[in-house]
């Protein structure tokens, strides 16, 4: 239960304000997150971490000497957008490039991936190391598919210390990769968590039961059992992580992190750790500077995870090195020098010139965003319910955040006299910024591509609209790499676009063509129920999802149907 909030929609922003106000010795706020209050030495690599909010101290609390140089902080349980990640990276970097390191979640991968492309295009070298420590999220032969959880602390620490020591980007990426390849985490949950303003927990575990391997957003675990004793839990966790010792590693020293996920007390953690320490010693393992506390939480979820990283001499040096961040301090690190700030990326309140025809189209686009927002609001609970069957249950919330922000941005751009292309592009950025998540990234690039096709001059013809929808589809496929049959929104988008194009080709008017294509989209969304997911967060629990449609496919079908009502009203537009 979250007791204290003002508006649920502004919670994530307000928490960053308060966090920075309380920790301005360490961090300063930039668009999209925080960076160190004092910049690193010129010419040192900037380590930029990040992800959704709701996991404190991940990620902002881990920014400071000896750890990260910046953290991109997204909305609750949703990745920051590519623009936000870029903004943090540009504020943090000092001329030697940027290392992105973050948990392996689809939304984070998409947004950080786009940000990396953008930095490289700006001449800033950038590498990525995704954290994949969660042993329960994929089998040992698919290590790269695993999610990133509390073991990220070890990877971030190693990378941050190596960067502060002045190592070049390749080297910082190498040691981060090495740390990740040797880190394993196992987690359990006793209760779910409740986001601000929500009446129900995002997910739940039956009283007295423990979900083994449940993810930090309620991703289904691998089994369930009665809650054991503290010793019983220690045995389960230690047994599982030691069984995962990487092949070929002979080292016997380990970094250990026993992590509370939100509402397990430190006292309980210490009781568990007492047995963990004895079990590790009995297994012939030497523990190096263990950490017991909260390092990667899931709001008020009751749960515990154990992370172990097998250390060689090099990693041990980085792990033992001092660090000084709001939430993680070893000893005081030496003060960093203050560098010159890059000019922040600014967005002006100006829009490019547009023809009157395009301004009229822009008003129709605004009407479409209005109806999209209302449709998403009306269906948010159901979308969340479908997403929770095999995913993380936040599809409705994410779509609401995106659609609401897109509507506001579209309205603002229309008021400034923008044409249709600019309105769509501004709405796209706002959608991606506020929604986060996989669908936020995909809706962002799709609306951008549509806007680029429509432009700010000509009144779009029906075939321009088809070209725009094709561009949106291409952008989604390029970024998400889903294929037909993977059980995603692509399974609706492709038949929708095909039907629309065929109807427009045979000179059916746009509103009628769109409405016929919306029928096809609805049927295609229903048909995803029989598919087995091959991509995205639902994939690890593929079998659970059979019989239920894909959440992103359903929301897309709802949206194209809603837009068809606006086209029907828009004579000649
Ligand atoms: N690679 C992909 N390409 C296209 N669509 C995808 C892809 N991965 C996931 N999706 C769509 O995104 C939806 C989930 O969106 P959302 O809830 O925002 O994501 P997350 O799992 O990151 O929280 C899925 O139902 C699916 O339709
Ligand atoms: O869940 C998170 C990001 O995953 P999405 O795929 O964007 O939902 C976030 O809380 C961890 O970074």
Automatic annotation (TrEMBL):
Residue ranges constituting the DhaK domain according to the UniProt record: 7-328
PANTHER family reported for this sequence: TRIOKINASE/FMN CYCLASE (PTHR28629), TRIOKINASE_FMN CYCLASE (PTHR28629:SF4)
Annotated GO MF terms: ATP binding; glycerone kinase activity
Q: Name one GO biological process term.
A: glycerol catabolic process
Q: Which residues form the DhaL domain?
A: 363-565
What high-level taxonomic lineage is stated for the organism?
A: Bacteria, Bacillati, Actinomycetota, Actinomycetes, Pseudonocardiales
What the entry lists under SMART domains is as follows: Dak2 (SM01120)
Q: Which PROSITE patterns match?
A: DHAK, DHAL
**What organism does the record attribute this protein to?**
Lentzea tibetensis
Q: Which InterPro entries match?
A: DhaK_dom (IPR004006), DhaL_dom (IPR004007), DhaL_dom_sf (IPR036117), Dihydroxyacetone_Kinase (IPR050861)
Which keywords has UniProt assigned to this entry?
Answer: ATP-binding, Kinase, Nucleotide-binding, Transferase
The organism's place on the tree of life at top rank: Bacteria
The protein depicted here goes by the name Dihydroxyacetone kinase family protein
Keyword Kinase set for record: yes
